[in-house]
Design a protein that fits this description.
By secondary structure, the chain is α/β, with parallel strands linked by helices. It has one domain. Strands 1, 2, 3, 4, 5, 6 and 7 form a 7-stranded mixed beta sheet that branches. Strand 6 and strand 7 form a beta hairpin. Helix 1 crosses helix 3.
């Protein structure tokens, strides 16, 4: 599996509020471009939209320490989704047969490895950014 090298650093900070402030700034700039659901266009999916809203609801299901750990890679994940053309590990979701999960590997500018997970609905072809977590 090829690893995408992001041009972004991890978000610095030790508390969730510090890290969230920076990640939220990135999210708001993406959200300001549309009146509807915020999305990023992906090079790997040939310019198709990858929606971001599920990530935030999924993030708040986690404990605060894990939220902080995952959110530090938010800017790197957005960069990977936009610019990566490398093939991910793709498999069917074992819990829901009508979904495909794509897992992309990346490395931040300062050397931290991370995984980005995108869910695709087989029927509608809608793609949602679900999660980012360190390797």
């Amino acid at each position: 599996m090829e690893i995408y090298k992001s041009a972004k650093n991890k978000i610095s900070g030790t508390s969730f509020s510090e890290v969230r402030e920076s990640a939220d700034r990135t999210y708001r700039s993406i959200k300001a471009r549309t009146k509807r659901t915020p999305y990023i266009k992906s090079k790997y999916f040939k310019g198709e939209k990858v929606f971001l809203t599920i990530f935030w609801s999924h993030l708040f299901e986690k404990q605060e320490k894990d939220r902080t750990r995952r959110l530090k890679f938010y800017n790197c994940a957005v960069d990977l989704i936009r610019n990566s053309t490398y093939n991910p590990i793709t498999r069917e979701n074992f819990q829901k047969k009508d979904e495909i999960l794509h897992r992309f590997s990346g490395k931040s500018k300062d050397g931290g490895g991370f995984i980005v997970q995108i869910k695709e609905n087989k029927r509608t072809k809608r793609k949602d950014f679900i999660s980012v977590y360190p390797e």
